[in-house]
Design goal:
One of its GO terms (molecular function) is hydrolase activity. By secondary structure, the chain is α/β, with parallel strands linked by helices. 34% of the residues lie in helices and 18% in strands.
């Protein structure tokens, strides 16, 4: 869904033109290397700025103190954005382990541009990672869901050494998959004019009309290039979009370097990732990036 390749090492320009601060929370617009403004939020680690809360610890399912050094950069799924409740919930749990950066991909929410459904979104993630580093955090972990799960894989492959750990949840392993009913509906949404209208007005997602040219690096190919950066692949055994051959293909491509969690009873992406699972991901990532 792009008229050009993504992620060739160009650096983004961070030019905030709207910024609010309160209790060290920052909301601003970042600009990508190709000039797209991204609605972005930085939340400091909860244990550093918030009063201790037994309820929060129970919700997060961990007693590990939040780290001042680690920052999680969350890459949401297709049709998500920084204000969606499921994205805010994931961010809230991960704040128990470190700081969190969330952002809306191009074409989503209040960000500019149009979605290329995983291609040029690598530039969006690169801008968010650069911002996270600039905020003074020594360790950066990218956590992606569905489309965002494919983006974190490609970003780590195209920008080696830019992050300290990668977590890919509910990601496809290959492009153009139409083997399930939800994916056939998604392809209609992306490729048909009527579908793109539904995306714009019904889902707050503006989708580019051009096909990918060239076709970007596949998630499986990217997984083979991520070592030695720690990699965690998480997938539900009830995922209605991508069956289990996708995570197994990713793990196989990683050739023993990536760790695979197949979660019993889990469906697809953020909505299916419960707080306890997200807390386990936070524990894994904080340790792996350390």
């Amino acid at each position: 869904m792009s008229n050009g390749p993504a992620g060739h090492g160009a650096r983004s320009t961070i030019r905030p033109y709207r910024e609010t601060r309160g209790d060290a929370r920052i909301r601003t617009f970042l600009h990508t290397a190709d000039g797209i403004p991204l609605d972005s939020v930085y939340d400091p680690p909860s244990a550093v700025y918030d009063p201790p809360s037994a309820a929060h610890e129970a919700r997060a399912g961990t007693s590990r103190p939040a780290s001042r050094d680690v920052v999680f950069v969350i890459a949401h799924g297709f049709t998500g954005d920084v204000e969606r409740p499921h994205v805010r919930r994931i961010a809230g749990v991960l704040r128990g382990h470190g700081a969190v950066v969330t952002f809306s991909f191009r074409g989503h929410g209040r960000s500019g541009g149009r979605s290329t459904v995983g291609d040029k979104e690598v530039l969006d993630l690169a801008a968010a990672v650069e911002w996270a580093r600039g905020l003074g955090h020594a360790r950066v972990v990218t956590v992606g869901f569905s489309m965002g799960g494919s983006v974190v894989l490609r970003h780590a492959a195209l920008h080696p050494g830019s992050v300290d750990a990668v977590v890919s949840v509910s990601s496809p392993a290959r492009w153009y998959y139409r083997g399930t009913a939800p994916m056939r509906r998604l392809h209609w949404l992306v490729t048909r004019p009527g579908g793109r209208l539904v995306g714009r007005y019904g889902l707050r997602t503006r989708i580019h009309h051009r096909d990918w040219d060239p076709v970007p690096l596949s998630p499986a190919e990217a997984a083979s290039r991520i070592a030695p950066t720690p990699l965690l692949i998480v997938h539900g055994d009830r995922d209605a979009y991508f069956p289990l051959d996708h995570p197994r293909m990713l793990a196989g491509a990683a050739a023993g370097h990536g760790e695979l969690w197949v979660e019993p009873g889990m469906g697809h992406a953020e909505h299916a990732a419960g707080d306890a699972l997200v807390a386990r991901i936070g524990d894994w990532a904080a340790a792996a990036a350390g």
